[in-house]
Amino acid sequence: MKDLMGLMKTARDMQKGMKKAQKELSRLSVTGISLNGNVEITLLCNYKVKEVKINREVELSALELEQGIKEAISDGLQKVEKTTNEKMAHLKQGMPSIPGLGL
Question: CA 56, CA 74: separation in Å to the nearest integer?
Fold first, then answer.
C-alpha cells in the first residue's frame, strides 16, 4: 500500500512538472532555416508557427519556394523536438520504464 501511495505522489509530481514544462515550451521558440537560407520559419516549442520570413531580395520560383518551406519546417520541427526532449528529460528520471508509454 505504501508503494502505491508513493507511486501516486510521483505521478502527481510528474503531472505538475509536465504542465510547468509545457507552459515554458509554449514560450520558447526555434527557427528552422532552408538549406539555401532564403526561408526562415520560427516555431514555438508547442508546434505553433510564430513567423515566416522569405528573402525578398532573391527571386524564387514556386518550386524553389515550396522546397525552401519544406526544408525550413523540417529543420524547425527537429529543433522543437530536441528542445522538448531536453526540457522533459528531468521528468523521466526516477520513473520505471513502462513498455508502450515511450518514456
Answer: 21
Residue 65 and residue 54 in contact, taking contact as beta carbons nearer than 8 Å: yes
pTM score, whole prediction: 0.75
Cα 57 from Cα 13, distance rounded (Å): 51
Percent of the chain with pLDDT over 70: 85
Write down all domains in the chain, each with its CATH number in brackets. 2-92 (3.30.1310.10)
Nearest to 72 by CA among 45, 25, 37: 37
Contacts within 8 Å (CB) and 24+ apart, 12-19: 14/91, 14/95, 17/90, 17/91, 18/88, 18/91
C-alpha cell, 74: 523540417
Task: Identify the bridge partners of residue 54 per DSSP, sorted by sequence position.
Answer: 39
Q: Dump pLDDT digits (tens) for 30-42.
A: 999 999 999 999 9
Q: What per-residue confidence (pLDDT) applies to 58?
A: 92
